[in-house]
Design goal:
disordered C terminus, about 725 residues, single chain, 13-stranded antiparallel beta sheet
Length: about 725
């Protein structure tokens, strides 16, 4: 290795000649030049021949040459001229392969420091096959590639598909593929909605600085209604803040007489959703959310790009504004919540303030652990919702509990004893008489035997964990408390936990039993190195005392879950409370996904009889989807959701067919769909979906897509 300029640049070649008169160094045969920077990165030059003029400092690369930049870009060219620091360059027949394999070709290129100016250049992320043109590329008379600003600028540019021009613009720019955030216009969005008209949105994104950004999207509308949406995000050292908002002007007066204009569309419509969450705090968490709209169906109908919420078929939608505060350390946990709901009927929307849950444990008492729990909730409405829900409801529950665990060989014995007091104050009404200011003492004792075992099957390279569990529980209270079924606070509980051995596993501290209960269950899990696995749980809990007439027999139901993936291309998931057709089912969810060669599909079913203070009606939906992979890039698929309860729409909620193409440079999707869902001013509609994604450039989305599709049906996790 022979130094050329200084210790940071070295040269290696088969032959090196130095002209002492002209002071030119000539290197030929596998020439390699390496430039090392202070940060440790390097630049490599490979060429057939290099001439270095020591007087002017110019370097000429003659013949086929390759330059590997520190950024990962690779430049190949003929007849390159460089300055001694490699900042400025002139090259012919230039090709630049970016770090993400995108390719730039130019007839001639000039590099000034970190800015490339290219003549008659093309840009494409697509792979080339032989001499054929890429699937798509951009061809411009002049292209500027700014490596500092990480931006491409084109003048007199054409978008070509397989070499055929399909679009022309005098100016176009887009960020470099490695840019994550860049101020500028995003790809426009186009939607044609049957009942609200055609919308064209032009989002503008502003990267204000490293910790905040803003996206503003004005829409053009065929019915001349002004629609604009905005999304703002900011990150703090101890929290983050998101705001999503939109505004829609009212319909024109000349349209008021038309039947298709709803009463809501005669007024301006809007939504505002903001969330603040704390981060990086040692012993506290705070979340504050304001979620309000002119009406609860506005965000579902109009093409408002939202930060929050999900799409699912529900009979009663609602917005929840809340404040959540958690305080905790190693000995206690305090959760406080305030909820302010918005529903279709403002007078029956519940307001919960406060909801408080306090837990403390870790105190030794008689070789066991002593803990204390206090749970309080107050809920009020402007008027009574139904015979099931009161206008005002207050309940506080306080429990002192003792736990003891003891191991006898493979057997685990768990003992617990608790004393609990419940105090209620529930408003009376004509439809449902309720007692007020009631105090109920409750004594609870529980004993559990379990056999948690672990084994390993060497021949199958599997690990198996299994164990049956038997729990006996005794609760002593009076029959009035046991039959007090006011269930206002069940919104804070969830069926999905399937906790067999919890007395109140069907939600609500306002439900309790009187008498003895025995629960029997078993769980097994199988793991292996090939990721084929099984997790299963099943159990049954029965009231064996005769001191209480159970009105809700669901508390004696079978409870279970099953997640099975015996092969890489098939998986199954199911969970239930109550076995359908055998006993009264409270919840059932099942799904299977599978693929065989080029065929793939899935089926999912969801039944939920969940009743809480916002949504009284359950859902029963069946989702089916299937597809066929025609080639490595093309596939076709279809999906359908059936409404098994046949309410708020026909038996078919939505169905559609989609064809898609996907490779390294393009994502194309086209399809048609039909929805039959009805709810207030939400109407059935038929439409199409067209999605074009030029990768590294952005998206073009044109649709009147279904607005209430349950994305989770048929999917197995």
């Amino acid at each position: 290795m022979t130094p050329i300029v200084n210790s940071e640049i070295v040269l290696d070649a088969n032959n090196i000649f130095y002209d002492t008169l002209k002071k030119i160094v000539i290197a030929t045969g596998d020439v390699i030049v390496i430039q090392t920077f202070e940060d440790g990165t390097i630049r490599e030059l490979h060429s057939e021949k290099i001439e270095y003029d020591k007087k002017s400092g110019e370097i000429k690369l003659i013949g086929e040459s390759i330059i590997k930049e520190p950024t990962g870009d690779i430049i190949s060219s003929k007849n390159v001229e460089l300055d001694k620091e490699f900042k400025d360059a002139i090259a012919d027949a230039l090709t630049i392969i970016l770090k993400d394999t995108s390719k730039i070709k130019a007839k001639r290129g000039i590099k000034s420091d970190r800015v490339f100016t290219l003549e008659n250049a093309t840009y494409s992320p697509c792979k080339e096959s032989g001499c054929s043109a890429p699937l798509w590329d951009l061809a411009a008379k002049k292209t500027i590639y700014d490596k500092v600003q990480k931006k491409f600028i084109y003048k007199n540019v054409k978008l070509r598909i397989k070499g055929i021009p399909v679009f022309f613009t005098p100016y176009f720019s887009h960020p470099s593929p490695d840019v994550k955030r860049k101020t500028g216009f995003l790809t426009p969005m186009f939607r044609n909605l049957t009942d609200v008209g055609f919308f064209a949105g032009f989002p503008f994104y502003t990267a204000i600085n490293s910790d905040k950004d803003l996206r503003l999207t004005p829409f053009l509308n065929s019915k001349k209604r002004a629609l604009v949406s905005a999304d703002y995000r900011q990150l703090f050292y101890h929290g983050d803040f998101d705001i999503s908002a939109s505004f829609l002007s009212r319909a024109k007066k000349k349209e008021f007489s038309q039947k298709k204009i709803s009463q809501r569309d005669k007024k301006s419509r809007w939504h505002f959703d903001s969330v603040f969450k704390t981060q990086n705090l040692d012993n506290k968490r705070l979340s504050f959310r304001i979620n309000r709209a002119s009406d609860v169906t506005y965000k579902t109908i109009y093409p408002v790009d939202l930060m929050h919420g999900s799409n699912i078929y529900l009979n009663n939608k609602y917005n929840d504004s809340n404040i959540l505060l958690d305080l905790f350390d190693k000995n206690y946990f305090l959760n406080t919540e305030v909820h302010w709901y918005q529903t279709n009927d403002r007078k029956t929307a519940p307001f919960v303030a406060p909801y408080i849950d306090f837990n403390t444990k870790g105190y030794d008492f008689l070789t066991g652990e002593l803990s204390f729990n206090s749970n309080t909730v107050y809920l009020t409405r402007d008027k009574e919702k139904s015979a099931m829900f009161a206008k005002d409801f207050f309940r506080t529950s306080n429990t002192l509990k003792w736990d003891k665990n003891k191991v006898f060989g493979p057997v685990l014995l768990e003992l617990s004893s608790a004393f609990r007091t419940d105090i209620f104050n529930v408003s009376e009404s004509e439809s449902a008489e309720r007692s007020k200011n009631k105090f109920f003492p409750i004594f609870e004792n529980q004993c559990s035997f379990s056999l948690p075992l672990m084994s390993r099957i060497k021949s199958l390279d599997q690990r198996v964990i299994w164990g049956p569990k038997i729990t006996f529980t005794s609760v002593e209270t009076n029959n009035k408390r046991a039959n007090f079924e006011q269930n206002e606070d069940s919104i804070f509980d969830n069926f999905s936990d399937l906790t067999l051995h919890a007395i109140n596993r069907f939600g609500g501290y306002d439900r309790i039993e009187n008498g003895e209960r025995i629960s029997i269950g078993a769980e097994t899990s199988i793991y292996n190195s090939k990721r084929r696995w099984l997790n299963a749980f099943i159990g049954k809990s029965n009231n064996i005392g005769n001191r209480q007439k159970l009105k809700d027999q669901g508390r004696n139901s079978m409870v279970g879950r099953l997640v099975l993936k015996p092969w890489e291309n098939i998986s199954f998931r199911s969970r239930f409370i109550g076995i359908p057709f055998i006993e009264k089912s409270q919840l059932f969810e099942g799904g299977i996904t599978a693929s065989y060669k080029k065929v793939f599909g899935g089926v999912g079913y969801l039944y939920d009889k969940k009743i809480n203070c916002v949504q009284e009606n359950g859902i029963s939906q069946l989702g089916v989807n299937c597809g066929y992979r025609i080639t490595n890039y093309w596939s076709i698929s279809g999906s359908k959701i059936f409404n098994m309860k046949k309410k708020n729409g026909k038996s078919s909620l939505t169905q559609g067919v989609t064809a898609s193409y996907n490779d390294e440079c393009l994502n194309l999707g086209i399809g048609i769909f039909r929805t039959n869902f009805k709810d207030n001013d939400i109407k059935p509609r038929t439409g199409f979906i067209l999605t074009i994604v030029f990768k590294n450039l952005g998206n073009l989305i044109k649709s009147n897509e279904g607005y209430a599709y349950n994305n989770f049906l048929g999917r197995v996790e």
